């Protein structure tokens, strides 16, 4: 086992592997990935296709955005599916947390992520607003 390296990536997660791949594609040769056990033995094995592009940390958002592009490109280059698929997300905020939601909207726009904004409240008499058949939100923007 090596004891020295120019760069050490800690954790063989979706992010760790994509960072290592990026560095090697930039011709970095003295790079090591450290994983506590074996790859995919932790939480990554069941979340590898669950890549969120919006995070509170802008740096993590950028890494995740890169990882999504990387895994899509790997499928095209190799003809092998990485099993990556992109799902949508629903962000809900009470008025007191609307600022945090506005930050996510701004990050989405910077990264070119499609983001539709709805405003409104549930109609009276609707016990479960997300499953209520009456339209309770209107598109704004």
Automatic annotation (TrEMBL):
Oxidoreductase among keywords: yes
Residue ranges constituting the FAD dependent oxidoreductase domain according to the UniProt record: 7-112
Any coiled-coil regions, as ranges: none
Cellular component terms (Gene Ontology): cytoplasm
One Gene Ontology molecular-function label: oxidoreductase activity
Keyword Oxidoreductase on entry: yes
Membrane-crossing segments per the record: none
Sorted UniProt keywords: Oxidoreductase
Protein name as annotated: Dimethylglycine dehydrogenase
